[in-house]
Design a protein that fits this description.
single chain; alpha/beta; Rossmann fold; seven-stranded parallel beta sheet; two-stranded parallel ribbon; 15% strand; binds NADP nicotinamide-adenine-dinucleotide phosphate; binds ligand F7E
Length: 337
C-alpha cells in the first residue's frame, strides 16, 4: 500500500532531497512551507525540473512550527505513516542573534509535533533531525555514547528536541528516532553556510563577477558529507522495527581552510590571493572539531557514505559555476509551486 509522509522544512536542503527520495519510493508526500513575501520554493523547483513537471505525489501546506494549530491540524488531517521533523532555524551563528526564536522553533516545536501525534492518536513513525552540534566542545570522535556539551542556542535547542524525542518514545511507546547528523552539504545548501558560501564565491570569482571571499574562523574542523546520502539514512531509520538513535557521518575530517584550498584548486586559482578573514563571521563560542563515528549506522542500518571530500567540493564548485553561467544567460526563471 502507498505510504504517506509529512515533512516539516520541505523547502530546505534536506527537505527537497527527502521529497525526491520518498516520491521515488512511491510515497504520497505532504510538506510544509512558510508564508514569505517572495518565492521560497526554489529547491523544490529543482525537483519539479528533474521530473519535468510539478510532482504528482507532492502537496505543500502553509504551516509554521511556532504555530501549534497549523501543526496539529496537519497531523490530524493527513494521518501520515511517517513524520520527518526537518524544520528549524538551522543557522548556528544566527542562533546567537535570535536565541528565543531558535529555542522555540528548533526546540519547543518538537514537543508541538509530538503532542500533535498523541492528540490525534495517529499511528505514525517520527524522525527528529538531531545534530552533531549537540556534541559542541566534547572532543572527537563522537558517537551515540558521547556526552553533549552544546556551544550555541541552536545546539541547546537541538539537545532539548533530542531528549524530547527519546522521552516520548519511552513514555508513550512512540516509534521515534533521532538521526544525529554531522554536516552535510550539496549545491542546494543555504548560501550562508560555509561550504556553499565558499563554492559560490569561487564560482563567481572564476566567472569574473566577484573579487574576494571573506570568512571567519578557518581553523574549524568539520566532517562534511553529501546531503542526498544523509536523507537516505533518515528513511532507513524509520524502516527499522525498533526506534533508535544513530550518528550519520563520514569519519573524515577537514578544516575550513582545506575546503577553501580545494575549492579554488578546482578552478585553478590561488586561494590565498582571494581569501580574507573578518572577525564579524566568528561566533561568541566556537565548535572546534566534529568528526563522527558512524559504525552503529553501518552495522544496524547498513548505511555508509560514498561521496569523498574532494568529490563533494568538486561537485559543489562545478554546480555553482554552472549556476553563475545560467544567471549570466538569464536562464534562472522563478515560478510558484
Ligand atoms: P535548512 O536548509 O536551513 O532548512 C530548514 C527548513 O526549516 C526550511 O524549509 C525552512 O523554511 C524551515 N523552517 C525554518 N523555520 C521554520 C518555522 N518557523 N516553521 C516551519 N518551518 C521552518 O536546513 P537543512 O540543512 O535542510 O537541515 C534540515 C534539518 O536538519 C534542520 O533541522 C537542521 O537543523 C538539521 N541538521 C542539519 C545538518 C546539516 O548539516 N545540513 C546537520 C544536522 C542537523 P524556509 O525555507 O522558509 O526558510
Ligand atoms: O559553519 C566556520 C564556522 O555555518 C561551519 C548547520 O547545518 O552543521 C551546520 O552548522 C564552520 C564553523 O555550519 C565562516 O565558524 C568560518 O566552525 O557552515 P557552518 P555549522 O555551524 O557547523 C550542523 C551539523 C548543523 O546542525 C547546523 O544546522 O565554518 N566558518 N567562516 C564560517 N561559517 C559560516 N557560516 N560563515 C563563514 O563566513
Amino acid at each position: 500500500m502507498m505510504k504517506t509522509a509529512l515533512i516539516t522544512g520541505t523547502t530546505g536542503q534536506d527537505g527537497s532531497y527527502l521529497v525526491e527520495l520518498l516520491l521515488s519510493k512511491g510515497y504520497e508526500v505532504h510538506g510544509t512551507k512558510r508564508r514569505s513575501s517572495s518565492f521560497n520554493t526554489s529547491r523544490l523547483e529543482e525537483v519539479a525540473r528533474a521530473e519535468g513537471h510539478r510532482p504528482d505525489g507532492l502537496s505543500l501546506h502553509y504551516a509554521d512550527l511556532s504555530d501549534a494549530s497549523s501543526i496539529t491540524n496537519l497531523v490530524r488531517d493527513i494521518q501520515p505513516d511517517e513524520i520527518y521533523n526537518l524544520g528549524a532555524q538551522s543557522h548556528v551563528a544566527v542562533s546567537f542573534d535570535i536565541p528565543e526564536y531558535t529555542a522555540d522553533v528548533t526546540g519547543a516545536a518538537t514537543i508541538r509535533l509530538l503532542e500533535a501525534i498523541r492528540a490525534s492518536g495517529v499511528d505514525t513513525r517520527f524522525y527528529q533531525a538531531s545534530s552533531s552540534e549537540m556534541f559542541g566542545s566534547t572532543p572527537p570522535p563522537q558517537n551515540e555514547a558521547t556526552p553533549f556539551h552544546p556551544r550555541s542556542p541552536y545546539g541547546c535547542a537541538k539537545v532539548f528536541s533530542y531528549w524530547s524525542t527519546i522521552n516520548y518514545r519511552e513514555a508513550y511507546g512512540l516509534h521515534a528516532s533521532n538521526g544525529i547528523l554531522f554536516n552535510h552539504e550539496s549545491s542546494r545548501r543555504g548560501e550562508t553556510f560555509v561550504t556553499r558560501k565558499i563554492t559560490r564565491a569561487v564560482a563567481r570569482i572564476a566567472e569574473g563577477v566577484q573579487n574576494k571571499l571573506v570568512l571567519g574562523n578557518l581553523d574549524a574542523v568539520r566532517d562534511w558529507g553529501y546531503a542526498p546520502e544523509y536523507v537516505e539514512a533518515m528513511w532507513m531509520m524509520l524502516q527499522q522495527d525498533q526506534p533508535d538513535d544513530y550518528v550519520i557521518a563520514t569519519g573524515e575530517a577537514h578544516s575550513v581552510r582545506e575546503f577553501v584550498q580545494a575549492a579554488f584548486e578546482r578552478v585553478n586559482l590561488d586561494w590565498e590571493r582571494y581569501t580574507e578573514t573578518d572577525s564579524r563571521y566568528e561566533r561568541p563560542a566556537e565548535v572546534d572539531a566534529l568528526i563522527g563515528d558512524y559504525s552503529k549506522a553501518k552495522r544496524q542500518l547498513g548505511w555508509s557514505p560514498t561521496t569523498t571530500f574532494t568529490g563533494l567540493v568538486h561537485r559543489m564548485v562545478d554546480d555553482d559555476v554552472q549556476a553563475v553561467r545560467d544567471e549570466k544567460a538569464g536562464r534562472n526563471v522563478r515560478v510558484e509551486l
